[in-house]
Specification:
Bound molecules: pyridoxal-5'-phosphate
Strand content: 15-25%
Structural class: alpha/beta
Helix content: 25-40%
Distance between the termini: 57 Å
Order of helices and strands: HEEEHHHEHEHEHEEEHEEEHHHEEHEEH
Number of helices: 13
Largest sheet: 7 strands, mixed
Strand order of the largest sheet: 4-12-11-10-7-5-6
Shape: globular
Number of strands: 16
Length: 426
């Protein structure tokens, strides 16, 4: 008897467990067969504008020919090598190129493979830094609403949420100060926490909190918080996993503040969204505290794919594209278009708040409860998708975070579907 050939979706349902998904109630996953520029094409030939850069990773469009070419060439030369005791030119060249964009105090680069690991490494380095200096400081201060990733350390630093709830008994304690939109409350709470004496580091998403619903605060406020940490000898960890690589209008969000953090975590846009790669950068002073004749002082941490040459090559290619004046102009144009659109819709009845930082525009709706489980989210997501636009609202917050290659007419279409939806909610 002939068995019926299973479709891709049927096979997906047979084998695959998707992230952040209730598999019982979720509909079938959408098969994407091709990506080109801002567009994702499904198996029926329908195109979707990727207005969220596929979970905030893509900078220059999908399957970018320049990045693909460089990656292919590197694949033929050296695909991977253990990174303890060995090095290679893609890793060194990437760090050299990146250092031109980073605050001047960032001296050393530690590789890993995803944003959560980059954060985990900064947390571990902070604690060990103090241990190596003979001090026992192990507590982290973070912001209300913080999201720093999925590993236990990153979850512990993050705000408690439905994501972390099943693991709450296992998370180490960290303190969450008020979101710095209320500058005075944040400053007061930070000072109080630091005064307790055991704070290893203050970790924050600079200027924009992504997963919390694209919540935004001012560079000058962040600068004040960092300044307090500096004066009190508390380390600062800037989690630029989402904000890095132009999203906020500058290459890194911390480029907009005077102060310099002790650590920067980056991933997502680092490889232009092509390959999993992340970095934790730090100051010379942090690095120096790990030097000694004793192996126990060293940072004994690493991952199999640390410093992967193909990932580094993609990252160099992506950085070259980011530095081009066309790309820098595109970042400015997206920001300007967002501003015009925001002005155009700001008086709509259904809007609770509308905010923008650089290429990120967030529209918070009055309707429904907020948060990941909000009901309106699913309806909005599906409606937008049906119209050929990939937007993945965070609860009641619709946001646009596009690849920089988005065409004017594509951006207009994104605005149009949002505006129509807002009109239908009125
Ligand atoms: C600010 C921030 N930090 C860390 C992470 C975790 O990164 P990853 O999903 O690559 O582990 C994310 C992911 O969205 C993030 O937005």
């Amino acid at each position: 008897m002939k068995t019926k050939k299973m479709s891709l979706v049927e096979k997906d349902q047979k084998y695959i467990w998707h992230p952040f998904t209730q598999m019982k109630t979720a509909g079938p996953a959408l098969p994407i067969v091709k990506g080109e520029g801002t567009l994702l094409i499904d198996d029926k030939g329908k195109a979707y504008i990727d207005a969220i850069s596929s979970w905030w990773v893509n900078l220059h469009g999908h399957s970018h020919p320049y990045i693909a070419e460089k990656v292919y060439k590197q694949m033929r030369k050296l695909e991977h090598v253990v990174f303890a005791g060995f090095t290679h030119s893609p890793a060194v060249e990437l760090c050299e190129k990146l250092s031109k964009h980073l605050p001047a105090n960032q001296a050393k680069f530690f590789f890993s493979g995803d944003g959560s690991s980059a954060v985990e490494i900064a947390l571990k380095m902070s604690v060990q830094y103090w241990k190596n200096k003979g001090e026992n400081k192990t507590r982290f201060v973070a912001l209300d609403g913080a999201y720093h990733g999925e590993t236990f350390g990153a979850m512990s630093a993050g705000a408690r949420s439905i994501f972390s709830a099943p693991f709450s008994d296992l998370l180490f304690e960290s303190t969450h100060i008020p979101f710095p939109k209320d500058e005075q409350a944040a400053i007061k709470s930070l000072k109080t926490e630091i005064a307790k004496g055991d704070v290893a580091a203050f970790i924050f998403e600079p200027l924009v909190q992504g997963a919390a619903g694209m919540r935004m605060y001012k560079p000058k406020t962040l600068n004040k918080l960092m300044q307090i940490c500096k004066e009190e000898g508390v380390l600062c960890i800037a989690d630029e996993v989402m904000t890095g690589f132009g999203r906020t209008g500058t290459t890194f969000a911390v480029n907009q503040v005077e102060g310099e953090p002790d650590f920067i975590c980056m991933s997502k846009g680092l490889s232009g969204g092509t390959l999993p790669l992340s970095l934790t950068t730090c100051t010379q002073a942090i690095y120096n505290a790990f030097l000694g004749d004793d192996i126990q002082k060293a940072f004994l941490h690493g991952h199999s794919f640390t410093g992967n040459p193909i990932g580094c090559t993609a990252a160099i290619a992506s950085l070259i594209l980011l530095e081009k004046k066309e790309c820098q102009a595109a970042i400015k144009n997206i920001a300007k278009s967002h501003e015009t659109f925001a002005n155009n819709i700001k008086s709509f009845e259904g809007i609770k708040d509308i905010r923008q930082t650089g290429t990120i525009l967030a529209i918070e709706l009055k309707a429904d409860s907020s948060g990941y489980a909000s009901k309106i989210r699913q309806q909005l997501y599906q409606d937008f998708l049906d119209q050929g636009v990939l937007l993945r609202p965070l609860g009641n917050v619709i946001y646009i975070l596009p690849p920089y290659c988005i065409k004017e007419k594509e951006l207009k279409k994104v605005y149009e579907v949002i505006k129509n939806k807002l009109m239908s909610l009125a």
